[in-house]
Amino acid sequence: MVVERFKEETKIKIVFDEGKGLGYARDIGWRATSDNIKYVAMVDSDVMVDKSFFHDALQILEKDDKMGALGAKLKPACNEKGVLAKFQMKNLAIHLHWQEAPYSSGVVATHTACTIFRKSALEKVNGFDPYFRIAKEDSDIGFRLSYLNHFATHLETGKRVWKINFRYGRSYVLISRKHPVEGRLWTKKNIMLTISLILFPMKLVIWAYYFSRYLKLKDVSLREVLVLSLVETARQAVRTLGMLYEVIFCKEG
User: Fold this and answer.
1) How far is CA 146 from the centre of its chain?
2) Contact 160, 117 (CB under 8 A)
3) pTM for this structure?
4) What is the pLDDT of residues 216-251, one digit of tens each?
5) Nearest partner of 169 among 248, 76, 240, 253, judged by Cα
6) What are 94-141's pLDDT values in tens digits?
7) Among positive and negative, which fits the CA dihedral 173, 91, 101, 156?
8) Averaged over 48-60, what is the pLDDT?
9) In b/e form, how buried is each residue of 173-185, taking b as 16+ CB within 10 angstroms?
10) Distance (Å, rounded) from C-alpha 83 to C-alpha 105?
11) Sequential DSSP letters for 75-138
């Protein structure tokens, strides 16, 4: 590990999650900080962020004691070629993420890829829940959060698209079990996607829906709209399969 080389000179504390998943790992991480620590920064291994983000975020957190956390928006970077790599760079979720209003507007939940949390806020909500072993551990926090108009570079790869989206589908079930109202599982969208796994013509309806949404994006060519909407339809199918897998084969708790 790279961090091992700096352990002695920087007094880095290394904690091991024992393979128990994201929620557990993030929770033992912030709890391992010293008592006098006021803020906890979380930066994923595939994220690069400039120093100005931390400076600006800390200034706001110092002035606004109602703010629980501030995150940087993510801008994908990928040096791979191919359809899946292109999708990771330009998919609809990324564009919607960029449209999120920055501070001082609040959001339902920020990501944990590049975010500074007020430690007292984490304590107030009892930290991250180990129950969220796959994903959605950030959505579960649920106190007042916001984004800054800073962009952290998120290193992407097309090689893990299907695996990651299958896991996200499974995480929908986990969040719905804990938050049945906010994270309602059987929305109209999820019902439609589930039916489309059986009735192929429904796939055309779903593709047409995403085609129309991608068509509204300004930085995407018509050819890209066609390709991206096809990949988006396939991605939603994989997420739905992940969701059904968790419902059928994985018992609660």
Assistant:
1) 14
2) no
3) 0.83
4) 999 999 999 999 999 999 999 999 999 999 999 997
5) 240
6) 999 999 989 988 887 788 999 999 999 999 989 999 988 888 888 887
7) positive
8) 93
9) bbbbeeeeeebeb
10) 35
11) EEE----SHHHHHHHH-HHHHHHHTS-BTTS-BS---SSEEEEEHHHHHHTTS--TT-SSS-HH
Could you give the residue ranges of the DSSP H alpha helices within the chain?
7-10, 22-31, 51-63, 83-90, 92-98, 119-124, 137-141, 161-178, 188-196, 201-214, 222-249
Does residue 42 sit in helix, strand or coil?
Answer: strand
Token digits of residue 174: 């986990």
The phi and psi torsions of 48 (rounded to 5 degrees) equal -120, 130
115's tokens: 């975010």
**C-alpha dihedral, 89 to 91 to 95 to 100, nearest 10°:** -100
Helix (H, G, I), strand (E, B) or coil at 235: helix
Q: Pairing relation of β-strands 145-155 and 47-48?
A: antiparallel
Task: Specify the domain boundaries for CATH 3.90.550.60 within the chain.
Answer: 2-155
Architecture of domain 2-155: Alpha-Beta Complex (3.90)
**CA-based diameter of the chain, in Å?**
62
| Both structure tokens of 152 | 């952290």
How far apart CA 192 and CA 84 sit, in angstroms, is 24
Distance CA 226, CA 211 (A): 7
